[in-house]
Amino acid sequence: MVQRIDRDLNRFRQVVRGIVKKELRKFMVTGELVGRQGRDYVSIPIRQIEIPTFRHETRRFGGVGQGDGEPGTPIGQAEGDGKGPAGDAPGEHMVEVEVALAELARIMAEELELPNIKPKSKDVIEAEHGKFTGIHKNGPESLRHFRRTFREALKRQIASGAYDFAHPVIVPIKDDKRYRARRTVHAPETNAVIFYLMDVSGSMGDEQKDVVRNESFWINTWLRHQYKGVATRFIVHDAEAREVDEYTFFHTRESGGTRISSAYQLAADLIDAECPPSEFNVYLFHFSDGDNWGGGDTQVCVKLLNERLLPSANLFCYGQVASPYGSGAFINDLAGAFKGTDNVVLAEINSREEIYESIKKFLGKGR
To answer: Is residue 356, in this structure, part of any structural domain at all?
Structure first.
């Protein structure tokens, strides 16, 4: 029975996996999974999977019919009150299932053809992990291994002839007791820090921020699958930049101008002070509508990228989100300044439908 349940559960998981993979683009575009994320799982709404079965409800339908029926007499009772026009399409029954974020990342890798990341930093952090992989004859009672102890006592009593097959009673003595033993494992860990930078000036509206929110969910899902430890930092900017929490990042809107170099300057200072490249793999994702203040600020941005950010970063990605108020010139300036630079990726996101391709472009280098 247990094996059958396990088999059915595995089959159900494979069916759910196939549905998620088939509809991955839709989930990315609509942002349906954003806000459904837990620590290790995400809740995914899918059409209900029903297995056909026979149901007998004699109390509801009056039991077995007798006698001749009249032509046109309905069998059973109709559902609902019968009001409203007739429909020609079946109803959809939705059910929410939990999918591990690690499994979601594996589906992303298959569907978007993402390569595994090779960490830039050669010096990795050694972390100690304790695993109970051994058995000792001494230890605290809280770690006593019941089955091993029982087996040793049984072997001793059978070997000595003290075992009574008619009235089996197993009484362990001190020499029979076995305890779980902890073994310290030194495992290498690679850590990553993700910087999200976003223009929150008046030209970036709610639609643009929703696009950024969707992008960040899928980027986080992938990078958390690739690294043991991932930290996220959020920077917003208009004419000035400041670090904020996640909620403020997605809900702040200013009315000032735009000076992108202020965000790059703050990110560079935070990396130097708190996230040295010798200990962290650094990722920067900047989203803007491409409108930047004049007076040479774009040249300042290029200098900051060349001298401070790119030498420290595994990857710098710039996503230009279409806005009716933005000039859209900044992506062209970056393309001209960093043509052929391996750790710079640029993408135009003109609508929600382009989220899928932009994420594939950002993460497709495996850096």
So the answer is: yes
